[in-house]
Amino acid sequence: CFPGFYKATYGDDSCILPCTVNAMSHSGAASPDDCYCTGGTYKVESTQTCDSCSSDAGIDCAGGFAHNSSG
């Protein structure tokens, strides 16, 4: 698959499933989990979307696969 798309099945099917808005994937992505949020956005787990960061809230959103949690 081209970057920004994935294919959840094996075979000669076309790669027509796009990552969500504001997300990208590397070539050969095989599931939506291979998509990652681009810089300036963060993943919202409940909606599986990449929402824009608010710069005035002091949030640094570099994008990518990094996971940071506090507890």
Describe the structure.
- This protein has strands at 5-6, 17-18, 23-24, 36-37, 41-44, 49-52.
- With 71 residues, the protein is mainly β.
- A hairpin with a 4-residue loop joins strand 5 and strand 6 (49-52).
- It is elongated, with a radius of gyration of 14 Å.
Strand order of the largest sheet: 1-2
> Between the first and last Cα atoms, what is the distance in angstroms?
37 Å
Q: Helical residue percent?
A: under 10%
Assign the structural class, choosing from mainly alpha, mainly beta, alpha/beta, alpha+beta, or little secondary structure. Answer: mainly beta
Global morphology: elongated
Count the helices. How many? 0
What structural keywords apply?
71 residues; 0% helix; mainly beta; single chain; 6 strands
SSE map:
Blueprint (H helix, E strand, L loop, with lengths): L4 E2 L10 E2 L4 E2 L11 E2 L3 E4 L4 E4 L19
Antiparallel strand pairs: 1-2, 3-4, 5-6
Describe this structure in a few short sentences.
The protein is mainly beta.
